Structures are given as C-alpha cells and as structure tokens.
Amino acid sequence: MLIIIIGYSMEGLTMKKIAKEVIEELLMIFTGKSLDIIVPPLLFLLLYKVFDLRIALIGSIILSLGFLVSRIYRKENLYYALGGFFGVLFAVIMSYINQNASNFFLPDIIGTSFLVIVTIVTLVIKKPLAAFVSHITRGWNLEWFYRDDVLPAYKEVTLFWLGFFILRLGVEITLYLNGSVDDLVIANIVLGFPITIAVLTISYIYGIWRLHNLNGPGVDEFKDNKEPPWRGQTRGF
User: Is the peptide bond prior to 229 cis by the omega test (within 30 degrees of 0)?
Assistant: First the structure.
C-alpha cells in the first residue's frame, strides 16, 4: 500500500485527499446499514450467556425484525435489513431444531460459501465481481468496465476479494466444527465490519492506482467518446 500511496503523491495527490476520498466511499457503502447484520449476533451472545438458547434466539429475531420495521417506516433501502432478518430467521430455526447455538452462524457460512463460488465464476467468465458491484453501486456503463485498459484493475481486485472470502470461510468452518459460540461471534464481527472496511479501503486505493497505470479513459471520458490522451479515472472505483 505504501508504494501505491507514493505513486499517488507523485501525481500530485495528497494523503489528506486520499483519506477523504476513502472515507466518503466507505460512508456511501455503509451509512449505518451494517448494524442490521452486526448487532443481532452480539445480542444473541449476550442473551445466551445470561439466559439460555431460547431467550437468545427470541431476542435476536425481535431485534432483527425491529431493524426491518424501522427501515420500512423511514423508507430506506431494505437490502441489509431483509438480509439480516431472513439470515437470523434461518439461524433461529436451525438452532432451535438442533438445540445447538453454533447453528446460529450457519447463514454466514452458507453466505460466504456462495460468495466464493460466485466470485470464482465471475473470474472464469471474465466478468469480475468487483466490476459488477461497482456497476450496481454507481450505475456506470458496463461497457467501460470491460475495456482492455480498465478490466485488469477490476479482475485483480476481485482476486483479492476471493482470497479474503476463502480465508473467512476457512475460519468460520473451523470454529463451527469446534462448536465455539464465543469465537464464532468474535470472528463474525472482526471478519465482518472491521476487515471489510480494510478490504474495501485497499481495493479502492489499489483500484484507482491501477486504473491510472492502465492509461484508459475515465467513465466520463468514455461516456463523452473523448479521444486520447485521457485524464483517466480520478475518483471512484
């Protein structure tokens, strides 16, 4: 990352500007939505330690439902709330049927497994996941992402994501098989919000640097059919 930052400085970009961009990008992605997924497991562990499995399951699903109702009332994006609610609902059913607290975290294992498979498929068909996610988030023209002087940046970032997903899956499966509820909660939180921020930060900084080195057009330049030499993509990845 140090080399990348030095590269930025050589182009006249300051550390302050880079940090500001990264923070704004992360706020755009999260804006508090991750609470819907992070908080229920924390409540589950607390209630499980103080009371029992049934109380922990009931408390978690009530909280998750509360997040969902709140988002509906405020007319906000329901993606995270719905994902969190149905994830908790599935976990509650599995945990209650088997009377095993570790099953509360089965949705995370299934979800991570799905991400690994999807990421590999997108790389095989040369439509990297990072490009598709950026397209959905920003609404940029898909044709721009698949240019020869743009695509490698998104392919390399997707490979980085794949490594993270595989690492996360390995940790989750190991802890699940050991039946350690406390460790599963900690791993769920650490490998969720904090590590995700780190992964996205590195992805953004590397992605912008890589796009610059590829010498392709920026999104606006591509949209306006401008001829080279191009300024390139200077903001957003």
Answer: yes
Using the predicted structure, report yes or no on whether residue 12 has a pLDDT greater than 50: no
Question: Does residue 157 have a pLDDT over 90?
Answer: yes
pTM passes above 0.85: no
* Consecutive H or E run containing 87: helix 79-98
44-48: long-range contacts, CB 8 A cutoff, minimum separation 24: 44/104, 44/185, 45/181, 45/182, 45/185, 48/101, 48/181
- For residues 109 and 93, give the distance between their C-alpha atoms in angstroms, rounded to a whole number: 16
- Report the SS3 class of residue 226: coil
- The tokens describing 31, both together, are 């804006």
pLDDT digits (tens, 9 = 90+) for 177-207: 776 666 776 777 667 667 877 888 888 888 8
The position carrying tokens 């969720």 is 192
> Which amino acid type is present at position 4?
I
Orientation of helix 193-214 relative to helix 181-190, angle to 10°: 30
